[in-house]
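SAMPLE LOG
Freezer: B-3
Tube label: C17
Construct: single chain, 287 aa
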Amino acid sequence: MIRILTDSTADLLPQQASALGVRVVPLTIHFGDTHFLDGVELTSEQFYGMLAGCEKLPTTSQPAPGEFLREFLDARDAGDDVICILLSSALSGTFQSAQIAAAEADYDRIFLVDSCSVTLGLQLLVRRAAHLAAAGLTAPEIAEHLEQAKQHLRLFAIVDTLKYLHRGGRLSAAAALAGGLLGVKPLITITQEGSISLAGKARGLPGAYVALFKKIDEAGGIADPDSVLVGSTGTADSTGPIVRYLTQNLSLPEPGVYSIGAVVGTHAGPGACGIAFFAKDSFAEND
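STRUCTURE (predicted):
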């Protein structure tokens, strides 16, 4: 049997994870001295309500190696394979925690995949892994497929402000300053190495949507129309223009629309929206 494991930044609701047969290790949200397990003790709706009223921005922390070790040992005792797909190691120590746990478990049927992405992008890889497992592929085959697929994975997002990313250490002061002009809406992306980068900026929200749509075209277009996810932090209203562009301009099926959870919301802030998809061009071909 193949077990698929991810972390809570994949932003899968418990019932969605259960339907896919995916186990989730949560990260932790800290509001001062109060701690919440992401997606377990704190929903997205609760988080954004608390974020709006807090004086000091919350922080996040990775799972301890022991959280992964319990999963790995349970799989080892059952003789199951594990495919563990996690948020970018450039953004969090979560992947390193899993590496430590895998070494301690001393079980060669654990396959770790650094998604080099987060939230919607990570979720796309997790969903693909579940689909491939259901199709009968072996764990090594699935892990290899994911390593190839992530070369085509794209994540673009419009953020209301870069202050959250800068304060959280996910974006340099220079990049934050470049995208922080009055009236400018920044567009961010995840690089091939899995870090956050400023992909562009536009005057006003309508211009930001146009800039995002141009990025889809620059990526060579969407390779798999059935593997497109759209999401937002705090409110789903901002995803409407993206959904309409995909369905009306590109004649694609209506994508899944998701709430981006507390961990990513801590760093992106409220009012962000984005899209993840597999591009027709790979990063290597674009470089």
